[in-house]
Amino acid sequence: MTKERLYIFDTTLRDGAQTAGIEFSLEDKLSIIGLLERIGVDYVEGGYPGANPVDTELFSKSRTKSATFTAFGMTKRAGRSVENDPGVQGLINSAAPATCFVAKAWDHQVELALSSTTDEHLQGLAETVRIAVDNGKEVLIDLEHFFDGYKANRDYALRCAEVALEAGARWVVLCDTNGGTMPGEISEIVSEVCSRVPGDHLGIHAHNDTGQAIANSLAAVEAGVRQVQGTLNGIGERCGNADLITLVPTLVLKSRYADRFELGITSEQLARFTQISRAFDDRLNRAPARQSPYVGASAFATKAGIHASALAKDFSTYEHVEPESVGNVRSIMVSQQAGKSNLLTALARHGIAMDKNDPRLERLLETVKERESRGYSYDGADASFCLLAHEVMGTLPVYFDVESYRASVERRHNARGELVTVTEAVVKIRVGEELLMSVAEGNGPINALDTAMRKDLGKYSHQIEDLELVDFKVRILNGGTGAVTRVLVESRDGTGERWFTIGVSPNIIDASFEALYESISYKLLKTEAAQATTAAE
């Protein structure tokens, strides 16, 4: 039987940006796009071109390699032509090859929010779609409040879907905007819509206000839609959106869907879900939810007792899928093999081959566990994991040693009588037999230490000329006088590669310095590896 194609559309960079307490920088958005492409989503929605400087810069060029980069905005405003509507023109002129326009499918919202009429709104919808199609865009229409609109005025809601399709939209997306629709209602209404609009042109966009965004998305798929929208870890305004980290494994691994549908996500990409989910939480500077389906630390955890005894004989007794399928690990006292499998996968990402029976693998596993008990987390710091693996294996070169460092912050009046804060750092580094001392001022102690450490690395200086510190996040792991601080540093170089390193210490400066040291070490390691590959060729 030929399987039907099911498409995954991610809205993390727009819907997720509406989450209380979350504000994405340009670097955040670029990094998240990289995470999304690693798990194989079909569409990445970036936000509103022109809405703010971050999104204006983001849409100055197409930012994806495999997924379809998508801009978001409104259909034309009432009383304006599409040619003279700056919002529509901004979307058309963006570098994104696809554009998602939002239209109101609830007549009450048309009158209340837009001060317009349903006929005028339908005309504006059609004109917006046509001009975008004429300009070579793949067009999606988000029908906002569709399910409430359907219940209030069925004919108008259905007409919105028909008009969008007739005007040339590739996708018509049915939105449960306030998250209040029940799965049974979703199934009935979507089935009716499919009698007017082919399912391979329909999508579902579910919010989680009743905790049923995933159930509603699955109900819509079974009723006929062939595009599913959601966000990483389910973030979004109010109670969030459908969580793609839970939804996608269900669609791929459960025979009810796997036997009928094909997704553009490979088993290798699915095995990255745990790492991507946790790396995303690290970027948001928050702790991963331990009981998240599939990827949580407790998702495959079983305490000793009858469950553990049963698992030792048959893992399927209490596990609905293999933890390795989503990159997670089994956590029971009777077996550590799953942990080794996970490490082998992580090592392979760095081109490190190791046999599962190699005693160094057991040593690495124990080292990771011990360090994680002290606050380290390697899911979001892959470069630090690479260095740790080489260290345990005895293959990590010692490029330089830091003999000492000092950072001082002074608040004083300058020559003009202005109150200023001056930060100075001194770093002593030994490269081979050569002792080097560098002094630098910076915008805070971390910047000063980073500048001083990279100021003079002797024979390695030329190898780090293009190294740049991109982002710096601090998280307090526990409170009180014995608080432990975790620092995550993001770096990049001239090749465009980005990497993350981690430092943990009760002292924030010490934790930061550790992460900076590892960033430079990783840069040198990968530079020498690239040179060795070039020489071999």
UniProtKB/TrEMBL annotation:
Q: Which Gene3D superfamilies match?
A: 1.10.238.260, 3.30.160.270, Aldolase class I
Which InterPro entries does the annotation name? 2-isopropylmalate_synth_dimer, AIPM/Hcit_synth_CS, Aldolase_TIM, Citramal_synthase, LeuA/HCS_post-cat, LeuA_allosteric_dom_sf, PYR_CT
Q: Which GO terms describe its molecular function?
A: (R)-citramalate synthase activity; 2-isopropylmalate synthase activity
* Enzyme Commission number: 2.3.3.21
Q: Which UniProt keywords apply?
A: Amino-acid biosynthesis, Branched-chain amino acid biosynthesis, Isoleucine biosynthesis, Transferase
Q: Does the keyword Transcription regulation apply?
A: no
Q: Which SMART domains match?
A: LeuA_dimer
Q: Give the family per the record.
A: Belongs to the alpha-IPM synthase/homocitrate synthase family.
Output this protein's name: Citramalate synthase
